[in-house]
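Below sits our specimen:

——
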Amino acid sequence: MPKISVGTVLFYKGDADRFPLESEVVLEGVDRRFEGVRFPTKGKTFLYGHNNAGSNHLIRLGPLVGLEAIHAEITVEIEQWIRHKVNLSNDPERGLMHSRLLSFARATKEVLEAVDQVCSPEVGESIFGAKGVVVHPQALDALLDDDRFKHLWVVAYTVDTREIGRVQVATVFNMDAVDEIQTGSELDAVEFLI
């Protein structure tokens, strides 16, 4: 089954060898890690894409607050990967209804306009800013109430942060789709709380 990878940085209290003092670590997204960005509340938001600058930024935060910080890669099932730009048709090769993933970077103008139509009433203006950056990500919760989008498990998009500028993120609306969590060996013995 097709899967995607998203990432986060986990923070925990550690001993002198960086091993956790607790037997459980909460799988947190980046939802509260970027000041001024309000993410959807019906899912957890993670970093998305290779070499995401957000990861290095978050790793540096741990020592500032007296915690260990470690990168985590989360594998999420999406059922089908659409190779072309997705549209709203019933075409199995292009239709959004055939996948659980919507990446705004891989969507047609028709799909983005439909997203804006659904989400804009939540904030009173377009959710999109310059170059397709989502300026009101919290409004993406509204997608789960629309028949064209409520089947989605993951929505990937770009936001602009004060700390590092533009960063790609993905909100996972179905945490049951999480297949695997990989971290460094320091967390091999812990249980992840999702």
About this structure: Residues 3-188 form one domain.
